[in-house]
Specification:
Layout (H helix, E strand, L loop, with lengths): L29 E6 L3 H12 L4 E4 L11 E2 L7 E2 L12 H8 L4 E3 L4 E5 L2 E2 L2 H23 L17 H13 L8 H5 L7 E3 L3 H8 L5 E2 L4 E7 L2 E6 L2 E10 L3 H6 L3 E3 L4 H8 L6 E8 L10 E5 L4 E2 L2 E2 L3 E4 L6 E7 H10 L1 H16 L2 H4 L1 E7 L21 H5 L7 E3 L12 H19 L1
């Protein structure tokens, strides 16, 4: 089911081959260099090797996974600091992989509790909130189906007292952007489906799936030089030469200029990168000594948003007791998430605790045994959570999938046609790019 139809552990580091690092012109023996060991980079490497091409994956950090990573130290239990949901279970390859490799995979129960002020909403309030979300969703579908490359704020009618809440939970919480920041036409292209979880953590699952791929860690690309003869990549550890390159870093990193291109990328490619900016979606994880939320394991907690900051709704959504490990993910998205990020991690956590105290009373602050805030907005290797097209930018995903001079290809969730903002979408984009590169090199 897609939106057209919707109405209601880490692999051991392997040293690069001795001929991979080159400072002279006769070392151009590698077929493809891949920048980034996230889902796209790992799948691209695997696909290219299946086709008999030599590859090297370089990664600026010390681990695989990129924005999917499970930490065990902070809470003493699996804690996904990034991607946690396995979206679109009907076509998500990681679910089958987990089932075949002994992981505890299970479908999201999708139970939800909704609060107004400091109490659970009445039946009438539940119905009003759901109707507001349906009204907004239908307006976005109509616009997307007609190819209207406009923001939801241009087509969603006034929803009265539920306007901020619809914006918060359909925009900031789902898209990491507010209703005035993303394109209906782009939003409409995404598939929908069931959500799943991995009890051991999505990052744990991904690291296991990547253990057959050699990666050179702590190797950051600084400059990419390209011409009709091939590609030369300057890193903090030296220069690597290859016939072609697949770049899987986020559009946030590409737009920042942290990786330079010589000559510069074509103007249309640069415009596509800038038309797919990163959204903001940050975790505040809490381990509480008792359940205040009135819902069980993996249940969603939401509440009526009544306040705004510079037009953006102030609020968060929460996944309670994720996978039974006692960790509640309180997630803040959109422009307000960025505002809090600019003030520092403590401001983000302080806001969440303040909101919870207003709803449940001051006792909840004393019930926090441990907490942690993870800020993707400030993360140097992502500069945001995930990408979506700005109003007027729905064309950009197709453009960024196009090769540059049959030497440079881009992959990653931002390049996915219909599974963007997901790990599975990044995985599939890596395979797609690898097939294109293999065809071009032949």
């Amino acid at each position: 089911m897609n939106r057209r139809e919707f109405i209601t552990v880490i692999g051991a580091s392997a040293m690069l081959p001795s001929n991979a690092w080159g400072n002279n012109s006769n070392t151009n023996t590698m077929d493809v260099l891949i920048i980034g060991a996230g889902a796209a980079g790992i799948s691209a490497s695997r696909e290219l090797q299946k086709r008999g091409l030599s590859t090297v994956v370089i990664e600026a950090s010390d681990r695989v996974g990129g924005r999917v990573h499970t930490d065990y130290k902070i809470f003493g239990a699996p804690y996904d600091v990034g991607a946690h949901w396995l979206h679109i279970g009907e076509v998500n390859p990681f679910i089958k992989y987990g089932q075949q490799n002994g992981f505890d995979m299970y479908r999201s129960p999708d139970a939800e509790v909704f609060y107004v002020d400091n109490r659970q909403a009445s039946d009438a309030e539940y119905i009003a909130f759901e109707r507001a979300k349906q009204t907004a969703t239908k307006a976005m579908i109509r616009a997307g189906k007609r190819g209207m490359d406009v923001a939801p704020s241009d087509v969603v009618p006034d929803l009265g007292e539920w306007s901020n809440s619809a914006n918060l939970y359909l925009g900031a919480y789902e898209m990491a952007k507010d209703f005035n920041q993303f394109s209906c036409a782009d939003w409409y292209t995404s598939e929908d489906g069931t959500d799943w979880y991995c009890r051991e953590g999505f990052g744990t699952l991904f690291a296991h799936s990547a253990q057959d791929t050699s990666v050179e860690f702590n190797t950051a690309a600084r400059m990419i030089r390209w011409d009709e003869k091939g590609v030369s990549v300057e890193t903090n550890r030296g220069t690597i030469k290859a016939k072609a390159i697949i770049v899987t870093v986020s559009t946030g990193v590409l737009a920042s200029g942290d990786i330079k291109f010589d000559p510069p990328l074509p103007v249309k490619t640069q415009e596509a990168i800038n038309a797919l900016p990163m959204g903001h979606y940050n975790h505040v994880a809490l381990k509480l000594n008792r359940n205040f939320f009135g819902i069980g394991e993996d249940g969603y907690f939401a509440y009526q948003a009544t306040q705004t900051s510079n037009g953006a709704p102030k609020g968060f959504g929460a996944l309670v007791n994720a996978s039974g490990h006692g960790i509640t993910y309180c997630d803040i998205g959109g422009q307000f998430a960025k505002e809090l990020s600019d003030l520092g991690k403590s401001a983000t956590q302080d806001f969440v605790i303040s909101e919870l105290k207003q709803i449940f009373g001051s006792d909840i602050a004393d019930a926090v045994n441990h907490s942690h805030t993870f800020d993707w907005t400030k993360h140097a290797l992502t500069k945001g959570a995930y990408a979506s097209a700005s109003p007027g930018g729905a064309w950009a995903r197709k453009q960024i999938r196009r090769a540059v001079a049959d030497r440079i290809w881009f992959a990653g969730e931002a390049t996915s046609k219909d599974n963007w903002a997901t790990v599975a979408g990044a995985h599939k984009s890596g395979i797609r790019a690898a097939k294109k590169v293999a065809g071009a090199l032949k």
